[in-house]
Amino acid sequence: MKHFKIWTRITRCYSTKSVISELEQRGLVSQISQPKDILIQSLDTGSKIKLYCGVDPTARSIHLGNLVPMMILLHFYIRGHDIVNIIGGATGQVGDPSGRTTARNEMLQQERLNNVNNISSQLKRFFQNGKEYYLRKQTDQSPKLGTHFIRNNLDWWKDVNMLDFLAHYGKHIRIQQMLSRDSVTSRLSATSNSKTDGLGFNEFTYQILQAYDFYHLYTKEGVSVQVGGNDQWGNIVAGIDLIQRLSGKDSTFEANKNKKVGPYGITVPLLTTANGIKFGKSAGNAIFIDPKMNTPFDLYQFFYNTLDEDTEKFLNIFTLLPQEEIKSISERHSQNRSLHVGQSVLAKEVTELIHGPKEAQDAEYISNALFGDSGSETVDGDTLTKILSHTGILQNGHKDWDLLETLVQIAKVSRKEARRRIEQGSVSVGLQRGNTITENLSPDLLNNHLISNRVLILRLGKQKVYPILME
Ligand SMILES: Nc1ncnc2c1ncn2[C@@H]1O[C@H](COP(=O)(O)OP(=O)(O)OP(=O)(O)O)[C@@H](O)[C@H]1O
Ligand SMILES: N[C@@H](Cc1ccc(O)cc1)C(=O)O
C-alpha cells in the first residue's frame, strides 16, 4: 500500500468558496428551505450563524449515518460558525416515527440516561477531533473556529406544563400540516393496508416537540439553521412554521429583532447501503463511533472495502480534503483500481477524523500487515503484536489448542467443516499469506508459528483473518 501526499494549500480552498456551494458540490445537501439566496447572501457577506442538529439517545453510540449531518456542521464550524448538538433526553422518550415502519421498543430510563451521556461525550470528541484534524492540516496562521455546545432538550421540556403549552402554542400548530407529513402519511397508509399496528399519539406529536426545540433554540440561543437527515425534513419544516407563526406574536422575538438569518432547514441525503437501505440503528447495519462497539480498525476496514464507485462520494462526504485533491486522488484511483488508492486515503482520513492520528496510523499498519500485498515482508512482529494488543481486536486463544480446535473456537466452524477446510488448503497460519497448512497441527507445531511468542495469525479462505493471543 502506498502513502499519498495530500492536504496541499488547503487554506485558500476554505476561505474563498461559499460554504453552501461547497457543501452542494460535495453531495452533502439534499434540500435547503427558502429563501435560500438570502441565506447564501448573508453567509457570503460574513454573517456568523449558529446551527443545530439533534440526535435521540436510542442507542449507546452514534453511527456513520448520523455523521453525515454532523459533517455539514463541521464545515460551518471550521469557518467560524457556532454549533449546537441537541441530545434528545425528552424526544427520546417519545420516539420519532420518521423513516420507520413500526413503533420503537420502550427503553429503560437508566439506559436512556447512559446513552445521553455517551452520545454527549462522543459529539464533544467528534468536534474536538474535527478541530484538531483541521488545524493539523491547514496553514492559516489565525484560523477562526466556532464554538460547540451540547444541550439536552429535557432541560427545557421538564419545565413545560401541558396546559400552558396547549394554550400558548397549541393554537399555532395546524393539524392539517401535521397530518400531511411523510412520517405520518406513510404510517397511516401502512396501517390501512393492515401492515402495521398504527401510529401512536406520542409518535404523532413528535414533530411538535422537535418544532418547539427549534423555536426554543431560535429565540433563546440565536440558532437560525437546523440540519438533519432527509427523513427529518417534515420535523424541520414544522419548526420553521412554528417560528414564523409566532414571530411578532411573542415577546421573546424582541431579543432577536436584529437577527436577519433564518429560520432555515438543511437536510443531507440519507446514506444507504448498495441495495438502498438507510444506514442506521433501525436497519441494524450501523457502524458505530464507539471504539468498543466498532474498533478504529473496523472503521478503517469498512472504508477500505468501499466500492470503487462510492469512493469519491465518500471522500467528499466524510473528509475535509479539498475537492481538487479528491479529484486528483480519484484520477489516480481510476488509473489502477486494484491499488485501492482512493480507499486507502479514505480509510486513513476518516479514521483520523473520528479517532485521531495515532489510531489511524495503527489501523493502517495492521491493515497493511494482514491484508497488504507486501505487508508481511516489511512488518515487524513485535510492533504488530504491540499494536494488535492495544487496539482491542485480538481474540483470546490457548497455547494447548491444536489447529482444529483453534478453528472451531475462533472461526466458529464445526469440527467437520474445520477439517474439510484444512484438507481443501484454505487455512494458513502466520504473517506470510502463502503458508497453507493441509493437515491438523498439534499445539506444539502450531506454537511454532506464533509471532513474538504470543500472537497467531490465522487465515481462513481469502477474506477472513483472525489475530489471536495464545496464552
Ligand atoms: N443513514 C443516514 N444518512 C444520513 N443521515 C442520517 C442517517 N441515519 C441517521 N441520520 C441522521 O442523523 C440524525 C440523528 O438520527 P437518529 O438519532 O434518528 O438516528 P437513526 O440512526 O436515524 O435512528 P433510527 O435508525 O433508530 O431511526 C438525524 O438527522 C438523521 O436523519
Ligand atoms: N428527530 C431526530 C432527533 C432530534 C431530536 C430533537 C431535535 O430538536 C432535533 C432532532 C431524529 O430522530 O433523528
Describe what you observe in this structure.
The chain is α/β, with parallel strands linked by helices. It has helices spanning 10-16, 19-25, 36-44, 64-77, 91-94, 109-137, 154-157, 162-168, 175-180, 182-192, 201-221, 233-246, 296-304, 308-318, 323-335, 341-355, 357-371, 375-378, 381-391, 403-411, 415-424, 443-447; strands at 31-32, 50-55, 82-87, 148-152, 225-229, 264-268, 395-397, 427-429, 455-460, 464-470. A six-stranded mixed sheet has the order 1-6-5-2-3-4, with helices on both faces. The protein has a four-stranded mixed sheet with strand order 7-10-9-8, with helices on both faces. Strand 2, helix 4 and strand 3 (82-87) form a beta-alpha-beta unit. Helix 13 packs across helix 17 and helix 14 runs parallel beside helix 16. The model is unreliable at 1-13 (pLDDT under 50).
Backbone shape: globular
Q: What is the CA-CA span between the terminal residues?
A: 32 Å
> Low-confidence stretches at least 5 residues in length (pLDDT < 50)?
1-13
Bound molecules: adenosine-5'-triphosphate, tyrosine
User: For the largest beta sheet, what order do the strands appear in spatially?
Assistant: 1-6-5-2-3-4
Beta-strand proportion:
5-15%
Radius of gyration (CA) equals 26 Å
Percent helix range: 40-55%
Largest sheet: 6 strands, mixed
- Count of strand segments: 10
The class by helix and strand makeup works out as alpha/beta
What's the helix count? 22
Please, what is the average pLDDT?
88
Q: What's the arrangement of secondary structure elements?
A:
Elements: H1 10-16, H2 19-25, E1 31-32, H3 36-44, E2 50-55, H4 64-77, E3 82-87, H5 91-94, H6 109-137, E4 148-152, H7 154-157, H8 162-168, H9 175-180, H10 182-192, H11 201-221, E5 225-229, H12 233-246, E6 264-268, H13 296-304, H14 308-318, H15 323-335, H16 341-355, H17 357-371, H18 375-378, H19 381-391, E7 395-397, H20 403-411, H21 415-424, E8 427-429, H22 443-447, E9 455-460, E10 464-470
Parallel strand pairs: 2-3, 2-5, 3-4, 5-6, 7-10
Antiparallel strand pairs: 1-6, 8-9, 9-10
Bound molecules: adenosine-5'-triphosphate (ATP) and tyrosine (TYR).
